[in-house]
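Structure representation.

___
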Amino acid sequence: MNFTMPNLLPAYPEIFLLIMVSAILVVDLFLPQRMRYFTYALTQLALLGCAVLTLDVAVLTQGLVTYTFNNMFVADLMGHALKLGAYIALFTTLVYSRAYLADRGMWKGEFFALVLFALMGMMVMISANHFLTLYLGLELLSLSLYALVALDRDSARSTEAAMKYFVLGALASGLLLYGMSMIYGATGTLDISQVAHAIATANPNKIVLTFGLVFLVSGMAFKLGVVPFHMWIPDVYHGAPTAVTLIIGSAPKLAAFAMAMRLLVMGLLDLAVDWQQMLVILAVLSMAVGNLAAIAQTNIKRMLAYSTISHMGFMLLGLLAGVVNGNWLNAPDAYSAAMFYVVTYVLTTLGTFGMVLLLSRAGFEAENLEDFKGLNARSPWYAFIMLLLMFSLAGVPPTVGFYAKLSVLQPLLAADMVWLAVVAVMFSLIGAFYYLRIVKLMYFDEPTDTAPIAPTLDVSVLISVNGLAVLALGIMPQSLMALCYYSIKAL
């Protein structure tokens, strides 16, 4: 029996992260509480190391698509870009969350270990070229998030949210696995590239494929949080500690987008006529339910949860406009627009929840809309940052949210889906109401809370950069858009 050592180069970031998280777990056992900052520093160092290694892999492979582990793992430009986005998102999250976690007794080694294990799951999902690899990454991410939601063991609300997330997540995993099994039955392979080849050349059973596709899209829709698989999002966003809500609402969206690209575009593109019709329904329902339900919310975490549902629906518009009557010419523009949308959404979400964490303090959760009243009188600068973030989520120029929405609508129009573009614009106008309501509270109402806002220097600098980046990318989006375009084109 011959054994050939696989090429480990494409997986260097994952290997490094596994070593680091194992070391952090051991080191943390011997640290007293007052030295917990050392675990925090090691975690941030692990993220920086992963970023350097990911860039090295991109350079050494010259950005080409590289397979390893019997084609179960793929390194490509899209994967590198999404991984770097995940590192930046988690690095920022940990900086924003430090004071919040310390005030609530959650400044513990297990928090950092779970965050890094969740990142490991995201990285495996992003680079998966095999159904089993994708599922293993998804479950590693999901199990880590379940534990993070329940990390505040004294909170009944957090425990309830974790239970709901776990039960519904298990159901979604079952749907996904069943869909994968049916596609395996039709094509005889679990390799995503081979699935695409089998569908194109072997003429597999169309009925079995379509049933598998329905279950596959259902499981994927749960992970994206789109209607009608959205039930967990408001309860989990509200019930989880705000630092954990920020983790769930940011980097995993990048991994979910990668999962959609790997499964639908790289594996099942020849079935685009079928899955695009499903995505139309999911997108319209998500924009409708998300925007209309958000108007009634008085809790900002629940409002942002419904906002997430509507934004993920909007992102699906890019995925469903790629193939028109069997013509793939629109695909690079459409899929790169969807990638640009999800990246900029994650950037804006980081700043928004960062502001919620900034206004929270020991014994006080700034999670109601009233807590933003009179913010301009308390701190004009942070009110301005929040204004930029709300404008971006609403799609108001010159913020990046406007350009992201425009970039998704253009492929829709090119695909002659004018009615769908009109529906998207109408729901975006409805959604603008609840974002601008926060701006009205900050600038035109009297403050109900007069406590000073005094973040540490790193938090202050980072949240300022975060807010200004939303503005800068709206004025000059070309570089990020080009990165997304070439990442998709390289596939």
Q: What stands out?
A: Residues 9-489 form one domain. The mean pLDDT is 89. The radius of gyration is 22 Å.
